[in-house]
Amino acid sequence: MKVAPGLDHALIPAGAEAEWVSVGGDLVEAALWCGQLAEVPRRATVLKEGPPVNAFGIAGAPCNHPADRQPIDRQPTCHQLTGSGGAEAAVGPVRRYVHDPDPAVVRAHLVAELAGALDATLADPTIAYLYADAPGATPFARCLEVTDTLPFSLKRLRALLRERGVGRAEILKRGSALEPERLRRDLRLAGPEAASLVLTRVAGAPTVLVCHPVPAG
């Protein structure tokens, strides 16, 4: 049964499997599987180009779910993460790498399972960014290397980016009320370098991480 991706977990029938599907990083659909078609409580299905791999980055089998379905036509492979949907990830400090989970993983409440696969922790129990000492080769999250962690201050951030010669900035956010495009204007960026800015909270405090993307391996 297809359902809206924003489905409240409290409305999922007991014994049903709830699956969320993303394509190219965009959450596109959700479905409920009942009876003999239900294999696990929660499933995140991520479709992208390349061979299927599991959360550890190890090659695995193509996507085979009950009824041997393919959620989206003409996709060569898919990657699946499963779990209870009720586990909680450990909380720790910001570390060298931050992983931004795919929206299907977040909506399926499988961040804790991904954290276990990546040996990662949350820096805030309410924010789905995962922090690890090593970059994780996984289709279930994008990885960035953290170069600076600052309590959010527009003046301080602007000065740091000016010092680094950053003229192009990708702005990501979870748990921040700041509008990325307004922040970009306020930063008045200039220079030949690029950076990724992650607006988030760490232990409840507004924080910005200055990062560089880790090439997918």
How would you describe what is shown here?
It is a single chain. The protein has four helices and twelve strands, in the order E-E-E-E-E-E-H-H-E-E-E-H-E-H-E-E. The chain is of the alpha+beta class. The protein has three domains: 2-83, no CATH class; 97-143; 145-213, no CATH class. A seven-stranded mixed sheet has the order 7-8-6-9-12-11-10. A five-stranded mixed sheet has the order 1-3-2-4-5. Strand 10, helix 4 and strand 11 form a beta-alpha-beta unit. Residues 52-61 and 66-76 have low confidence and may be disordered.
Mean pLDDT across the residues is: 89
First-to-last CA distance: 35 Å
Structural class: alpha+beta
Total tally of structural domains: 3
Computed CA radius of gyration, to the nearest angstrom: 19 Å
Strand content: 35-45%
Q: Residue ranges: pLDDT <50 for 5 or more in a row?
A: 52-61, 66-76
Give the strand tally. 12
Total helical elements: 4
- General form: elongated
